[in-house]
What we know:
Blueprint: H1 3-14, H2 19-33, H3 39-53, E1 68-72, E2 89-93, E3 99-101, E4 107-110, E5 124-125
Antiparallel strand pairs: 1-2, 2-3, 3-4, 4-5
Helix pairs in contact: 1-2
Amino acid sequence: MSNLVDHARRELELINEEPDFVEAYLKIVETFAGMGHSGGSAEVAIIVIHQLLQQQNLSPLTSNPEEWEFHSNEDFGLPEDAWNNGKNGVWQNRRFGEAFSNDGGKTYFLLSENASTSNPKVIHTSRNHEAA
């Protein structure tokens, strides 16, 4: 048993985590501990694993049409001109679900930046998929 697993078990017990969850968490920690990371590689792996578990993208979003899914207002039971400045829907990124676009994926905004389809606060530019 590694120090990492011992630490995880102790911390989970201190918060009175349910035994089934303790065992599930410990399986994950044991798997990670068994990968043989050094301090530096563990830091990088933890960041990547965290992003993946948060369903975040690891590389920049692109304008590739296959990366974006169109949702019409009708999909949400809304009138045709309900949002997106009177347009009939919005595109959502398949790789990063909080990214939405009003122009088919060329630019996008993030819900975490308190944006909405009618009032995006920050507009990000997608990487041109043809140049990638």
